[in-house]
């Protein structure tokens, strides 16, 4: 993993960072690299309310806000931006508004690396709209000055259509931090973590591979 000047992570929901890139974030933090996480919504329309339930539709936004802060703290992120969009509505936002917001973050922070979702291959409409806005913002920058753009894809057809990821980080050295970040999003992850605990005890190869490897596709502009 290269030492970066500044890493900007942009996702729409609390916990988007935990599953796919938290080990990468923790690794950059351990290298002394500043990391900014811009999270567009509080995930207030999430279906999970804890297991057993401890949240409801009224309380979930505040709970997920606290969980997001706890996850950022676990990862060592000192610059957490909560951008105030409503969950499940990002796809309906004006495209220029979203693009200009991403551009303003990039201009302010001057990152050498931007991480987000790969549009077309990230399943959820909020993921797609966020990733597309990030791509548009980076594309507006002169090629010589662009930060690297490394994107997360997990649709069923992503490898078939994009090819194998060109970046796979072995984050096993910080896997405990990754698990702490996932645990921080308790309302969404408690049941999953219970099921995962047995698989980790058994050293299930598929579960270990999911925890220890984080994959990215470098976006190639035409």
Automatic annotation (TrEMBL):
Gene3D superfamilies: LmbE-like. It holds the Pfam family PIG-L. GO terms for molecular function: hydrolase activity, acting on carbon-nitrogen (but not peptide) bonds, in linear amides. It comes from the Bacteria. Its cofactor is Zn(2+). PANTHER family: N-ACETYL-ALPHA-D-GLUCOSAMINYL L-MALATE DEACETYLASE 2-RELATED, N-ACETYLGLUCOSAMINYL-PHOSPHATIDYLINOSITOL DE-N-ACETYLASE-RELATED. This is Bacillithiol biosynthesis deacetylase BshB2. The gene is bshB2.
